[in-house]
Amino acid sequence: MDPAAHEEAGGVDAVRAAVRSRLRGTVIDIAPVFGFTLTFALTHRLGVALTLALAAGAGAFVHRLVRKEPVGRALGILGFVCVQGALAARSGQATSFFLPHLVLHCAMAVAAPVLILLGWPPLGVMVGLLTGERTAWRRCAVRRRAFARGSLVLFAGNVLMLTVQLPLFLSGQAVALGSVDVFGPLVFALGALLGWRVYLRALGGHRCEAALPADAGLSADPARPADPARPAHPVRPTDPAHATDPARSH
After folding, report:
1. How far apart are CA 11 and CA 79, in angstroms?
2. What would the pLDDT profile of 133-182 be if each residue is shown by its tens digit?
3. pTM score
4. Whole-Å CA distances, 142 to 86, 127, 137, 147, 226
5. How far apart are CA 39 and CA 33, in angstroms?
6. pLDDT for 120-134, tens place per residue?
7. How far is the C-alpha of 56 from the C-alpha of 62, rounded, in Å?
8. What is the distance between the alpha carbons of residues 87 and 100, in angstroms, rounded to a whole number?
């Protein structure tokens, strides 16, 4: 198999594995929200609902530790649940429990178009972190455009969540808001999967001639794709993206 194709296949497998892991982790992520929403719907007692939500968050924390997942991620999720509980307890309103999620969705909805315009589409950043490629994809204009199109899918899913959640929050419908919020992680995971498929379709059969490891020449202008005839960086013999092509050797 061609080394470049082999490397690309490895990246595809890494993204698919990450999406499957995210879908499996969705059940754990929504446990506090589901517990809070169900308990409040049945009892209409904020204290009881908060107690169950915090217990579910602690249970998710222990579960992640048992599975030897990163401690930072487990602590972050538990801390997020604690912030939700503190806001709801302070305000006395059940809808305040979902305020951090609304703020997060609003921030993502504002940041995504800005990042796309600046040449840092969120999907590309995510894929770079998952595959270990980091920011090397930015050296290829074709890949940047493809990642921008895929990021629009993530943006659309985020906006869709906001258009449903904001009216429910403003009208004080805590149970309905919680029922929608439960699907938040699933919408994000599916948006990432669909965005990845859009990226692959937009990329087509393109093979990036300018891709280099992230630590090689980061000062290059990312807005200009490298000219194969005049490479902007030294070609490394072991770099799959610059494997010798007999057709180009003359």
Report:
1. 32
2. 888 888 888 889 999 999 999 899 889 999 999 999 999 999 999 999 98
3. 0.70
4. 46, 15, 9, 9, 12
5. 10
6. 999 989 888 878 788
7. 10
8. 9
Alpha-carbon distance of 191 to 153, in angstroms, equals 6
Q: How far is CA 114 from the centre of its chain?
A: 16
Q: Which residue type, as a one-letter code, is found at position 216?
A: A
Q: Tell me the two tokens of residue 109.
A: 């909805």
Cα(26)–Cα(13) distance, integer angstroms:
20
Amino acid, res. 157: G
Q: What 3 state SS string does 145-212 have?
A: HHHHHHHHHHHHHHHHHHHHHHHHHHCCCHHHHHHHHCCHHHHHHHHHHHHHHHHHHHHCCCCCCCCC
The distance from CA 16 to its chain's CA centroid, rounded to whole angstroms, is: 13
Residue in the structure block whose two tokens are 């959640």: 165
For 228, residues 6+ apart whose C-beta sits below 8 A from its C-beta are 209, 210, 248
